[in-house]
Amino acid sequence: MAKTFNEIEKMIDLKSIDFYEYLFSIIPASLKIILLNIAKMTDIYLFSGLIRDYFLEKRGHRDIDIVLEKQIDIQDLFLDFPIERNSYGGYKILCEDMPIDIWCAKDTWAYKFQGVFDFYIGVNIFQTAYFNFSAIIYSLNEKKFYYSKNFLRFLRDKTIDIVFPVNKNYDLCIINTMYYSAKYKLKVGKKLANEITKYYRNEPHDFEGVQKKHFGEIKYDQHAIEEFIKNKKFLTPAST
What we know:
This protein has a seven-stranded mixed sheet with strand order 3-4-5-2-1-6-7. Strands 8-9-10 form a three-stranded parallel sheet. The longest helix is centred in the C-terminal third of the chain and has 14 residues, at 170-183. Helix content is 42%, strand content 16%. The two termini are 19 Å apart. The protein has helices at 5-14, 16-26, 29-39, 49-55, 74-77, 109-112, 149-157, 170-183, 190-202, 207-215, 222-230, and strands spanning 44-47, 64-68, 83-85, 91-95, 98-104, 136-139, 144-147, 159-160, 187-189, 235-236. It is an alpha/beta fold.
């Protein structure tokens, strides 16, 4: 893996076309047709786990997160598939065997509840990511990645940290820190460690509820969560 920011940027940019081809090799043919039709109406941005796993060379990610720049009738485009509302105005769709979460940009939490952007909303969504491994998006229309130095640091240091400290579900942030640090053998940055420790000590929690909703099962009991928070071995120096 490249070590300097310039080397990592070049590596990311060189993979833009490869990612496009990879995406269309793993999605159902019906979804490919729908996305190409949507791309004629508005800009499409992919974000979150699919991109993270691609750059960590962990293939086999099975769900897709999408933001659309303009308001369009999503339900009309996915008439043949199970569709329901997800959090804050988006849609959860099962396209053949592939789960999709899709939002119009002005329906995202960052826009509706934080008022983060007034223009070019979709392309700036990565700046509202809680974790640095999500500080990147892919423009399907342009076949191009947009990202910040936070994502470059993540690839360089293999350390999870905070980008945008405001989140609608801090319990899930704690659980995801545990899950992804273990699954991908990633370090946890000092800023993130301090934030989740502070939140854990000062706020009420529903760890069972968020795990059942997110994973469909309870992966960590209360004892495991307490041990994770107390175990200072998971702390690493703050990113620079």
